[in-house]
């Protein structure tokens, strides 16, 4: 299975203001999705789920002609502390394409229900260390 690339994200939770701060920092080693083999135009869609229900969505700007984009975009979500154990944050790295359908390059889920152990660990660290920005690289998985 070929690599889907990696995504560097940083999270912190502010218990006093009930704010979850999600920062999409950068991606690296993204595969080319176009048939032409030209480098991609990636952006990241951030979905916040409570259980299985999506409660918020935002997206970064498109980074033109790069497979190692730097986003440095921050999103703030209001999340009451008692809901934190049931929250998960999904990151979809998408290749923007003007002519055909945008393609999902890879996916990352952080939270207690994450399909990858590093996603659960990262989330646990964020919950156990309120007010601290915790950044980690994660391998993207197939969507």
Q: What is this entry, summarized?
A:
Keywords: Repeat. With 143 residues, the chain is mainly β.
Tally the helices.
1
Q: How many distinct beta strands?
A: 8
Strand content: over 45%
The major sheet is characterized as: 4 strands, antiparallel
Give the helix proportion (percent range).
Answer: under 10%
- Which sequence of strands runs across the widest sheet? 5-2-1-8
Overall geometry comes to elongated
Q: Ranges with pLDDT <50 over ≥5 residues?
A: none
Cα-to-Cα separation, first versus last residue? 13 Å
Backbone CA Rg: 15 Å
Query: Which structural category do the helix and sheet elements fall into?
Result: mainly beta
The whole-number mean of residue pLDDT values reads 93
Give the SSE string: EEEEEEEHE
Task: Label this structure with key terms.
4-stranded antiparallel beta sheet, 143 residues, 8% helix, mainly beta, single chain
Describe the protein:
- The chain has 143 residues and is mainly β.
- It contains 1 helix and 8 strands, in the order E-E-E-E-E-E-E-H-E.
- The strands form 2 sheets. The protein has a 4-stranded antiparallel sheet with strand order 5-2-1-8, covered by helices on one side.
Strand and helix layout:
Layout (H helix, E strand, L loop, with lengths): L5 E9 L4 E10 L13 E9 L2 E7 L10 E9 L8 E9 L7 E9 L5 H12 L5 E6 L4
């Amino acid at each position: 299975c070929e690599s889907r690339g990696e995504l560097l994200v940083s999270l912190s939770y502010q218990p006093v203001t009930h704010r979850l701060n999600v920062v999409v920092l950068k991606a690296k080693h993204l595969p080319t999705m176009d048939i032409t083999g030209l480098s991609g135009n990636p952006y990241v869609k951030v979905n916040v789920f409570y259980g299985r229900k999506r409660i918020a969505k935002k997206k970064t700007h498109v980074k033109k002609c790069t497979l190692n984009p730097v986003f440095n975009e921050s999103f703030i979500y209001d999340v009451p502390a008692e809901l934190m154990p049931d929250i998960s944050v999904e990151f979809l790295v998408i290749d923007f394409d003007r002519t055909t359908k945008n393609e999902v390059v890879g996916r990352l889920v952080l939270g207690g229900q994450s399909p990858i152990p590093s996603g659960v660990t990262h989330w646990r660290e964020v919950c156990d260390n309120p007010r601290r920005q915790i950044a980690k690289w994660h391998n993207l998985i197939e969507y």
